Amino acid sequence: MRSRVGARSAWLFGLALLSILAPPAQADDYPSRPIRVIVPFGAGGPTDVFTRVLGEELRKVLNQPLVMENRPGAGTVIGTEVASKAAPDGYTLLMISATQTVNETLIPNKAYQLMRDFVPVAQLFHSNLVMVVPPSLGANTVKDFIALAKAKPNQLNYASSGVGSNYHMAGELFQNLTGTQIVHVPYRGSSGARTDILAGNVQMMFDSIPTMAPFIEAGKVKALGTSGTTRSVALPDVPTLAEAGVPGYEATIWIGMVAPKGTPQPIVDRLNREINKIISRPDIKESWEKQDAKPDPMTPAEFGAHIEAEVAKWAKLIKANNIKAQ
Fold it and tell me: Is the dihedral of CA 235, 240, 244, 250 positive or negative?
């Protein structure tokens, strides 16, 4: 009896040891069921739209559906926290943007930390913003606006979609680099901010180019500069802010994908390869670039370095401007 028990114990121990030493899940075994993609933004926004395009293309190559789950709220914190608690098995992914890197400093007491609780998978694209003013303001160039703002400190204001948003941080960066003092007017979403810039109730706003381009073309607002390092394909006649008199200015919207910490590396690598293949395709590049979204193929390590750099960049600005979450 003792020999049987001893043999059985040894057998069970061997199985346990094999399970510990066995290699992690392989990419060619993945996926075997639908993948949940948490989108911490509202439905219909740029992140949601581009994520669904990517999800459909990934479905074709992975032979499993990607189920998009919109979990907006608290400036991306709610959806991001849900993803941070998911099993690290490759079946829950999270869309990430510059907003989450801002929140690392703006909201320090979150239940998660980006670089602690997630691993980078891939970046999808980056897109520029455009700085617009009402025609009635009389500022035809960035230098005109800077001169006006310096002549009237704290008398001009700029609209954003909320504290910590891309539009807010773009405005704060503009103030820092130009030495101007402009009053921030946060709205609950970009629609209200856009309505007021079009009505001339606020003096400046940074907005997404695809959204604002029709109003620029119609003469309802004047575009003074774009926020990237190169000119926008959609607005080729509008200079970058760096060209227009704000050296070193860069504030772009970008979207990427991360996974819970501990997700097997073979799965991360496969997702990265497939995503990079999709966003490098000529048809995808042409379609996205027409919407001012430039595809950004990166390795997971490169994307991780980008996230860390963004966290550091916005942390410096938040502390310098004493920005507080509301």
Answer: positive
51-98 pLDDT, tens digit per residue, is 888 999 999 999 999 999 988 888 889 999 999 999 999 999 999 999
Using the CB atoms, write b or e for 158-170: b if 16+ within 10 Å: bbbbbbbbbbbbb
At 129, is the secondary structure helix, strand, or coil? Answer: strand
CA angle (180 as vertex; 175, 185 as ends), nearest 5? 65
Residue 203 is classified by DSSP as S
Report yes or no on whether pTM surpasses 0.85: no
DSSP summary character for residue 153: T
Q: Which residues contact 56 (CB under 8 A, 6 or more apart)?
A: 66
Residue ranges of domains in the chain, CATH in brackets: 30-127+252-320 (3.40.190.150), 129-244 (3.40.190.10)
Neighbours of 195 (CB within 10 A): 13
Q: Residue 68, SS3?
A: strand
Name the token pair of 224: 């003074």
pLDDT of residue 24 exceeding 80, the answer is no
